Amino acid sequence: MRRTASGWEPVSWDDALDETARRLHAIQREHGRDAVGAYLGNPNVHNLGNMLFGPELLRTLRSRNRFSATSVDQLPHQLTAYLMFGHQLMVPIPDIDHTGYMLVLGANPLASNGSLMTAPDVRARLRAIQQRGGRIVVMDPRRTETAAIADTHVFIRPGTDALALLALLHVAVVEHAPRLGPLDAFTDGLETVCALARDFPPEKVSPHTGVPAHTLRRIARDFLSARAAVCYGRMGVSTQSFGALCQWLITVLNVVSGNLDRRGGAMFTLPAFDVVGGPRALAVGRGGFGRWKSRVRGLPEFAGELPTAAMAEEMLTPGPGRIRALLTVAGNPALSTPDGARMEQALAGLDFMVSIDPYLNETTRHAHLILPPVSPLERSHYDIAFHALAVRNTAKYSPALFEPGPGSRQDWQILLALQHRLLTLRKGRPSVRATLKYQALSRLGPERVLDLGLRLGPYGARFHPAKQGLTLEKLRQSPHGIDLGPLQSCLPQRLQTKDRRIHLAPELLVADVRRLQAAFPQDTVPEQHSGELLLIGRRHLRDNNSWMHNVPGLLKGKPRCTLMMHPEDAARRALADGMEATVTSRVGTVTVPIHVTDEVMPGVVSLPHGYGHGRQGTRLAVATAHAGASHNDLTDAQAVDALCGNAAFSGTPVRVLRAAAPESATPAG
């Protein structure tokens, strides 16, 4: 579809792709390669074709202005995995099926279906921990669905998890002795970690965290005495000012307690399509950090991407290198990135924007061209990323349920065709080599690449005729998937560091502890500005981000876009359950109904993310009927983890007031 002065009009695929390539090429030729930016949304990771063919297009663009949902989510996981184990996807996974003690921070697997812990029927798996005599402890500013079934829930002040983790580490290595077990033979940096932990006894961090010192000590001792234990943290600890520190300290706690690479602790997957240790042409890159920085604020690159918090300013700030054109693929940054109003201003001011997306949504309404791929039910799928993050080694292929309609195209076909056109324009004429490669890849498609990866993976027979190994055909014959067994100890063999050793104390993370100490002086009592509350997000099981809000069955029931507020905070503001209130941050104001509940701690309010569908110019009838307010109209793009640039929107300072009653109409006469 092409946007015109009179509305959207249909356009042929060839015309749309030709125009897209021509305009992107012209902008790069006039203003430089970085004048074209790209944003990849969360659904890309759930799309086999995009995972395999998307990187080719990005390499062809050659722009340093690449962004994705990674830096408003799991970037701290990937950074610490890269620094400690040598690969961004060597993320330790809780061996939930065998653990005896699970400590959860800032995670709600009952609502997220596990997230970076792919676990079908996670409720049953959590219950099984308790049924075999184990314990679940949740530290969170909200009594989440997961906290409600845990043995213990502890409120903790938003943004202070790194302090609590250092206190637990203090008990583990200062008041007790570290016990690395077999890891000791190939782990460096233990002495540095022990020295850091000495400065953080529970008594010194308790005033900042709101967690009593005796509670922190009890949790640490129970964790250490469990037959097998695992500490797990997710979105709530990643999206704060010290997110990278949190994810690092979680892994360090698992290491020094002897629970890394151990049954029931934190372990590593060996996926059938091996994105870590497989053939180089099929594996995901190890990563990289700080090889360049964003133009305006100097935020660091990670794995070829800049932090999304810098995206709007890179479009709005004049000067060489300014983003003048943008390609979005399955993303909705207008709702999913901090300071949504400024993001929309930036999108509206672009010289050219093209979106590969099936929806006319809050972001794509700003595009000049929309290239709509087939729906998810019209394409096959194999979850390359989440099999690498699963609680068991599994493999499952899902064929398309429906044949694509006539004239429709898969995402990967759009990406490949656009890449070929850009290469042709850059060379000034069709290249025989490029044309042959394009034709070969078009014939190959995602399924043949997947089959190759399975054959060359750890369960494949490669191409040995006498051996029976995993192939795509075998997965087709197993519609419910194939269980390849529980997670197994795999270190040091699976380490991707050059020296095949665990780097327990990376210099970047060790140095960042000083920033933490400066932010929370140990001899002071934390102060909160009068009337100020700390905003956190939340997720409901049926929400699954903005891209699922146009599905009627998932939006049934009572409204879920409400602001949770503790009864004490509501009473101080003369607010009652169901009343409308205005919520104001440094960057914006929204109006939402209040839900008064003791499920959030005093001083904290919670608003779900992904809403805010009341914008004009979209075609999302179901979502618009349940518009809600956008959490990211309140979050601040200036608030980031200074180490890695990940968005820090957990704990956004806000003020909440009773909304003014609408003026009544003046009686006639």
UniProtKB/TrEMBL annotation:
Keywords assigned by UniProt, alphabetized: Iron, Iron-sulfur, Metal-binding, Oxidoreductase
Signal peptide range in chain numbering: none
One Pfam family, short name: Molydop_binding
Stretches assigned to the Molybdopterin dinucleotide-binding domain: 533-652
Gene3D superfamilies: 2.40.40.20, 3.40.50.740, Dimethylsulfoxide Reductase, domain 2
Entries under PANTHER family matching the protein: NADPH-FE(3+) OXIDOREDUCTASE SUBUNIT ALPHA, RESPIRATORY NITRATE REDUCTASE
Name listed for the protein in its UniProt record: Oxidoreductase, molybdopterin-binding
